[in-house]
Amino acid sequence: MRIVKLFDTTLRDGEQSPGASMTTPEKVRIAKQLEKLGVDIIEAGFAIASPGDFDAITQISEIVTQSAICSLARATEKDIVRASEALKNAKFKRIHTFIATSPIHMEYKLKMKPDEVIRRAVEALNIARSLVEDTEFSCEDATRSEIGFLKEIIGAAIEAGASTINIPDTVGYAIPFDYQRFVKEIVDFVGDRAVVSVHCHNDLGLATANSLAAILGGAGQVECTINGLGERAGNASLEEIAMTLKVRKDIFGGADTRINAKEIYASSRLLAETCGIEPQPNKAIVGKNAFAHESGIHQDGVLKYRATYEIMSAQDIGLDRNRLTLGKLSGSHAFREKLKELGFELDDEEFKRAFDSFKELADRKKIVYDEDIRSLLTSESANVPSEFALVNMQLTDCSGGVPFSTVTVRRSNGEEITDAAIGGGTIDAVFKAIDRVCGISGRLLDYKVDAVSEGKDALARVLVKVIFDEAKPAVMGHGLDMDTMKASAEAYIGSLNSYLVMKDRLRKVDRTLV
Ligand code: KIV
Ligand code: ZN
């Protein structure tokens, strides 16, 4: 059977999606899930971009053993050395270096002549090869590059030791039938000297189609992200590629990936809840409506014979709507079984914390759904060690009156502080009271609330995006509670805690990086 390698770049290109920044513990949690999903290579970040990226690559390298770990690096010595330092403890490591090869990028961005670009690529690969065995070279903006020049630089890169050659559609310009021909020409040129990889962006909505066309053209690796997250309109979606190969074996001659499809839903939920970017409801495979049949004719057909309207089942991706729900009488055994079923592996300490939170929730909520448990566990691991913890919050608001909030927080040294504020609305009053009590003021960029499951007693999941220092990127905070106001306060305090832990390690806004 022909195996196409899946190179997941959710933690690197995915994180370049506006508003998708993740903390190091969040990235580690996602990397563990990607390993479970069975991806071959995890691009864990861009080591030189920030101390935060460096930390994430280092920690993921220490924990993940089944997938290779990769760091991106520009074609410069300092980037490549930094990447190799971050990957030091990885069992399987890869350095991915790139330089632009299209006339427009070489002239206007790099301001380099083609010969110089080849020289830089060769030098970069020589350095990378002296540090690691597995090296990938990307010809940035390959689809707008001249094929003759591409062959020249690819030949030189292979000579210098590149084991994977990536031909990205950086600006999402390719059209499937044309890209298939283009990839085939490169595959024929490269032969068995290296693996040919593709990396497609979704600017024209064709990223998955182009990646699949490239597989037909002979590509041995595809680069993609969970939920299609990524720069601008996103990258090719991992779940769409993996499931197309499974469903249409007839077209792809049996080509497959090593993905365990039953982990797709869990991976999608974890990412969406971590960075607060929900896939659109009609998103293929993982959208809320992907397996929902609304029309009577469809429902009738599916009930009579599933294959009338379904080409795959929800269970194939690990989504089983008929699972047992839990309630306040469920004991630790049932809870442990449920966690196993949902794919969470916790050590004893984590299990105890999760069980306590579950019990607390089950006391207040009649039925605890799978989605509640997923959110509970994701939000537990999302907020970083806290300088401030919410102790108490009071709110007075009556229609027509002035919203007024009193907040008490406990500092990590045990000191409790109380203060109050009025606001234009209740959220404004709560967040202003938190600013006062913590002594630092944030600018709220985004606030989202949604119900985790059904029912009037559903848990409210709140996500905030806040700027605490105008020179630094925004940080996110998560809150989960049956009381929306309390969930909002938790989310805001969570974002402040994240900011305090990460402020020296955040990526500076640097337009020259990618
Ligand atoms: O889109 C792109 O060209 C990239 C490269 C760095 C591979 O992300
Ligand atoms: Zn990209």
Give a verbal description of the structure.
With 514 residues, the chain is an alpha/beta fold. The chain folds into four domains: 5-275, Aldolase class I (TIM Barrel, Alpha-Beta Barrel), CATH 3.20.20; 291-318, no CATH class; 322-381; 388-511, Double Stranded RNA Binding Domain. It has 17 helices and 14 strands. The strands form three sheets. The protein has an eight-stranded parallel beta barrel, surrounded by eight helices. A three-stranded antiparallel sheet has the order 9-10-11. The radius of gyration is 24 Å and the shape is globular. The site of zinc ion has 6 residues, from loops. 3-methyl-2-oxobutanoic acid binds next to strand 5.
Unique bound compounds: 3-methyl-2-oxobutanoic acid, zinc ion
Give the overall shape: globular
Mean pLDDT level:
91
Number of helices: 17
In short:
With 514 residues, the protein is of the alpha/beta class. The chain has 17 helices and 14 strands. The strands form 3 sheets. Strands 1-2-3-4-5-6-7-8 form an 8-stranded parallel barrel, surrounded by 8 helices.
